[in-house]
Amino acid sequence: MTWGIQWRQDALISNEVPIYFTSSYQTLFAGSALPRVLEISFGPQTWAFPLLQTDLGNGAGAEVHTAYGYGGVWPVDPFPEPIDLKVIQAFFRKEGVLSAFIRHSPFLANQRLWTPESSEFNRTCYVRDLCADQDLDTFSRQVDQKLRWSINYARRQGLSVEFQPASRWCERDVSNFYNIYLKLMEDKDTNTAYLFSEAFFFGHASFGDRCELAVIRDPLTMELIAGAFFLLDPTLGWAHYHLSASRRENLKSQPMELLLAEAAVRYGNQKFRSLHLGGGHAADASDGLSRFKRKFASRELPFHISKWICDQERYTMARERSAALPNPHMFLISDARGAQ
């Protein structure tokens, strides 16, 4: 038997795949790109590979990438043998696709579906294994002393966490959460790729009860001081810490520590097995975000990416044209151009 590769016409079914693979997620993160699903087959078995395709214009060709977050091939099992990357590259080259940038899913470890040289380690992701029938006091007794102090301090400041499913969240809270997020990103001089719009935040409503907004308010003014989106995969038993932000002037009250602790309790009691916290900024996990997430983690997972050049000659020509543009160090040519 040999590998078969073709574009699929039908969308993925939302309740049968991880949320990062759903058509709703792909559409939300597509921007100007075209959501597509590559179908990979081996004999009677088939696998889905959601991708976003960007036309580079002026006859230069196209490139594909996974949506922000995580992706890759689904399902993971059963799988007969590693996928032959050369077969994929040949298909893309025939389709006019010059390159592909893939973010594999650490919680699925689906980078192992490819030969080892097809991907590279990018950073460490953190996971909290969850327990049912637990309250915040029980959780606090199980963590180290520093984190327990942070949780208890936040509670003494009168902070509490409220969870709102996207199907019935308060629109004002979403707007206020977005404003906190935007200010934080601007203060950090973050890459413009992460400066999402308010409409994009509201677009998470398309996930229904598979997305929740957690918020913390100032107990005196009732103004929002911190928030986070959580994405839910009940079939897999995973909850995902997605986007978050807090007001810097309130960080001393330890709101984010309380927020994640309450999330671990909530989703454990809802029979989720694991809370996926994502990774930090630095590959060596030396940054503050990595240290923050490590405090909650009971285990770590490697996050792998792939950078595939499918048509070397055309890719090189397109790169040369992008050398003087805003982000020439970026692998994707559309990113090098600063496209959203």
- Overall CATH architecture of the largest domain: 3-Layer(aba) Sandwich
The CATH class assignment of the largest domain is Alpha Beta
Oligomerization state: single chain
Roughly what fraction of the amino acids lie in strands?
25-35%
Lateral strand order in the biggest sheet: 1-2-3-4-5-12-6-11-10-9-8-7
- Total domain count: 2
- For this structure, the CATH topology of the largest domain is Aminopeptidase
Question: What is the makeup of the main sheet?
Answer: 12 strands, mixed
Which H/E pattern describes the elements? EHEEEHEEHHEHHEEEHEHEHH
Helix content class: 25-40%
- As residue ranges, the low-confidence spans are none
Mean pLDDT value: 93
Helix segment tally? 10
Radius of gyration: 21 Å
Overview of this structure, please?
The protein has 340 residues and is of the alpha+beta class. It folds into 2 domains: 3-124 and 303-336, Aminopeptidase; 131-272, Gcn5-related N-acetyltransferase (GNAT) (Aminopeptidase), CATH 3.40.630.30. 28% of the residues lie in helices and 28% in strands. It is built from 10 helices and 12 strands. It has helices at 23-30, 85-94, 136-142, 145-156, 171-187, 198-202, 255-269, 288-294, 312-321, 333-336, and strands spanning 3-8, 34-42, 45-55, 62-65, 97-103, 120-129, 161-165, 211-217, 224-233, 238-246, 274-279, 299-309. The protein has a 12-stranded mixed sheet, sandwiched between helices. Strand 10, helix 7 and strand 11 form a beta-alpha-beta unit. Helix 4 (145-156) crosses helix 7. The longest helix is centred in the middle third of the chain and has 17 residues, at 171-187. It is globular, with a radius of gyration of 21 Å. It starts with a strand and ends with a helix. The mean pLDDT is 93.
